[in-house]
Design brief:
The chain has eight helices and eight strands. Strands 1-2-3-4-5-6-7-8 form an eight-stranded mixed sheet, covered by helices on one side. Helices cover 31% and strands 20% of the residues.
Length: 233
Amino acid sequence: MSLYIKGVQKTTMIDFPGKLAATIFVGKCNFRCPFCHNPELVLRHEKLPTIPEEEILDFLKERKDWLDGICITGGEPTLHKELIPFIEKVKALGLEVKLDTNGSNPEMVKHLLEKNLIDYIAMDIKSDKEHYNAAIGVNFPIQIIEQTVSIIRNSDIDYEFRTTVVPTFYNEAIAKNIGEWLKGSKLYVLQQYNNEHAMIDEKFLNIFPYPEDKLYKFAELVKPYFKKVEVRV
């Protein structure tokens, strides 16, 4: 079986911090975040053509001398058991691997870390615990999200927790709650919300992002909780 690959960006300098990488997009997700910018990968992944794994691996073999690694994103990559053998093949080429995850599969994350198959992990934190299910659009046990947070925090690889700053799910009180929850983590990233693209819930097209300076104010607010805070706009 091949990994369920639905898209590829052949070169990126922003998806894998400090690395020149390719980004692989995996279809299917178990969350329904209303502000998700990849609705096709979430809601209509069956209708998208699947890119053969061999095609991706051949491309990586050709570029391995100047690519540093790949970023695997989605959708939610950890839903697929084929993720493990795919990453093993990528690592055999000498490339580093960054994984993007929503944190819903702690066992998969733990396995990948134990097998030294990932070099960097980015986990989305959608909101504070109180507002989490509203932000992900489904009922999901927050304890599972907490397990993944703990596994990542106790790993010895580089990682980041990141939040897309959607006004509906982020304000000063929520920022502080997230800070208390993730206190002491290496890196927390605030990402600007963009309402100019298709989203799962079209009502969010009418919810406008905070001004850029507001993101930096949030960053100052949560700085005491983290070793490093960044803003991405």
